[in-house]
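I hope you will forgive my troubling you with a question about protein structure. The matter concerns a single protein, recorded as an amino acid sequence and a row of backbone structure tokens. Please examine both parts with care and let me know of anything in them that strikes you as inconsistent. Here, with my thanks, is the record as I have it:
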Amino acid sequence: MQMANNKVSGSIPSEIGNLETLEELDLSHNALSYELPTEMGSLRSLTGLHVQSNRLLGPLPSEMGLMVNLITWDMSQNHVFDKIPENLWRGDSFRNLESLDLSNNLLTGESSGSYFFNGFGESWEKLTSLRLGNNFFRG
């Protein structure tokens, strides 16, 4: 589903979770706001998620880790805040992820090895691009 650059506003409806066979979702460069619905975790066939350059806010839902086939996730240039939930980088979450861009948000937390990077080698073996710049990590 490609809906980029359409001036779409409001929230992503929770019914998005009903599209269980959806493989690509591009809602980038719109005026979407509010939090990502937890129902997005039902999109287990999704390989590409592009929601950059919107007004999305709130913490990242831990249910995002259920999208085990995700290859590309770009959520840069939003207003997402809080820590990245631990289950998103540990265990079996995102085992196919190759590219992650969460830059230009309001994310916080430790960026030291013991807190943040420990576990990347186990769960994100295919990761080739990681962009976390312009957030509020410390350490």
